[in-house]
Amino acid sequence: MIKKILTLLFILLSATTYADTIKTDVLVVGGGASGVAAAIQSARSNVKTMLIEQGPWLGGAMTAGGICILEANRNLPNGFYGEFRERIKKFYKVRLGYDTTFNAVLTFEPSVGASILKKLTDTVKNLTVMLNTPFTAIKKDGTGWEVSITVNGKTDVIKAKAVVDATEYADVATKAGAIFNTGFDSRKETGEAQAPGDPTNQIQDISWVAILKDYGRTADKTIARPDNYEPSQYACLKRIDIKKMLKAGALIDNKYMMNWNDCANQYSVTSDDLSPENRAETFRKARLHTLGLIYYLQTELGYKNMGLADEFPTKDKLPLIPYIRENKRAYGEVRMVLDDIYTPHTRGSRLYRTAIGIGDAIPGQHYIIPGAPKIKYPPFPPYSVPLGSIVVKDAVNLFVTEKAMSVTHLVNGSITDPAVQMALGQGVGASAAWCAFYGKTTKELDVRHIQDEVLIYGGSIMPFNDIPKSDPAYRAVQQVGATGMLNGFRSVSGTTAQMLFKPDTTVYTAEVKPFLNEIYTRSFLWFNKTQPGDNFTVGNLLSYISEMSLTDPETLERIMRANWKTKYNFTVAFDTRRPVTRREFVVLANKYLNPFSRKVDLAGKMIN
């Protein structure tokens, strides 16, 4: 008996001896689009950062999942997403036929995308990346977290001040005790006019993508007949122009991304099907469904020359993971609804003031099973993503991205696009790094400080299509836009829309007066004394700046005349009598009035 006890003690002591404890400031779990961006930004923000990914590739859906044609955010290629786009274009620029124009749809081979991300992360100071490293458990550790991982068959523990759940399924937040909802939200609950009257638990279908290659007219790349193959499942393809579908998914080197709707790649699931205990069987069936699609294409439709490309390190040559459009959404400090996209400036909350990223993906609704509510979105404009939607409610220093963000079902249809997630991930990383660097918690987040960090590293917080990063007024427009002093204009064209700042148009007194009176105590006295007309003039702006900053008016005017074109890059001649343009207003207001310095809470309310 004593011998058995001693043996047991020896085993326990050995396990303790060989289990390592790793300390870091920020831990990002999940190496998808948002996870990579978050980890890189966190490290660049000068905090020690770890990124763990259970698979062998970085990039998530857009590499390991095969979603390698990215249409979203191409007109807003900001921050890390813009950096990734440039690296892809640089890699392919010597290849004939590859479109390298500014806003071209981004296409790449999945293995190339994963390689570029790995090379990029290898060059980032303060960042450690661990691939093939599953996460197994998480528990609270003061204001931080202890996360268990599996390394070479043994369990190690990572102690982190802040954790980002960038997994495809919200596994970390689930084990941390976060509360979720799933499926369609009701109109009554969200106030969204497009939402159904009653909630449902339906989530969007998953897709197991395939990367095909044309091996030549005489080639026969027909795969073995998949298990449980039923050709009637794919009969709708006989009504589809297959050549057109292939062309829409064209990559390089005669390769094609196959992510077709309806009876093709889509596979219907529930959130229960995506739970850890059911995933393996669900994914086995989904893979077989896509293999059946390829077999049908080859045998029934005559495309035997179209075979699976040697793109992924898998036995069946399909992607490593499926494309998950939706699963379950955490309850955050705020919840983003459609009205935050369509009417951001007229709501009780002002979530746009707390933006940490931008997106413009056209939302999708993918269901094979009949009966799902049919959603008709009005023309979809670009939007800002609020900070509170990535902060898990009642779970200090835990952030969520990917499909777990605190948004409604109808917003989820856009925000989980990989391009949007990569742009958003930068803001997530800046937020987590802020907590770690300053020893603060998610209950104390400094919105303006985090936004400034995003801007410093080339990101965007306001989705203005007509103010590129190369514009000298870019930073001023971003900062003043985030205050609400001057709002954007939605411009609709067909089924899409843009958000325009219109920098060369006139500033009207009625649009700036409410905000100025809100944040400057002496403002109403100036308006009562000056009585500016409908058009706010250059002279009005200088007079207001003089009053608020206690600067001698004559001195201020002399400085402005001298610097108008040389320092401020204004193109219209200095004239105090003419209406001030929006560009002139934001540049000067940002410098002399500094409205961006006024703090806001997570609902966008000004803090005195």
Describe it for me?
One of its GO terms (molecular function) is 4 iron, 4 sulfur cluster binding. InterPro entries: FAD/NAD-bd_sf, HdrA-like. It holds the Pfam family FAD_oxidored. The chain has 608 residues and is α+β, with helices and mostly antiparallel strands. The chain folds into 3 domains: 23-199 and 325-463, FAD/NAD(P)-binding domain; 206-308, no CATH class; 464-608, no CATH class. The protein is built from 18 helices and 20 strands. The strands form 7 sheets. Strands 1, 2, 5, 6, 7, 8 and 18 form a 7-stranded mixed sheet that branches. A 3-stranded antiparallel sheet has the order 12-11-14, covered by helices on one side. A hairpin with a 2-residue loop joins strand 6 (135-141) and strand 7. Helix 3 crosses helix 11 (418-438) and helix 16 (538-549) runs parallel beside helix 18. The longest helix is centred in the middle third of the chain and has 21 residues, at 279-299. It is globular, with a radius of gyration of 27 Å. 46% of the residues are buried.
Break the fold down into its secondary structure elements and pairings.
Blueprint: H1 2-18, E1 21-29, H2 33-44, E2 49-52, E3 69-70, H3 79-92, E4 106-107, H4 110-122, E5 127-130, E6 135-141, E7 144-151, E8 154-165, H5 171-175, E9 180-181, H6 187-190, E10 206-207, E11 210-214, H7 242-248, E12 255-258, E13 266-267, H8 279-299, E14 306-308, E15 329-330, H9 339-342, E16 355-359, E17 383-386, E18 398-400, H10 409-415, H11 418-438, H12 447-456, H13 474-481, E19 489-493, E20 496-500, H14 509-519, H15 523-530, H16 538-549, H17 553-563, H18 582-592
Parallel strand pairs: 1-2, 1-8, 2-5, 8-18
Antiparallel strand pairs: 3-4, 6-7, 7-8, 9-15, 10-13, 11-12, 11-14, 16-17, 19-20
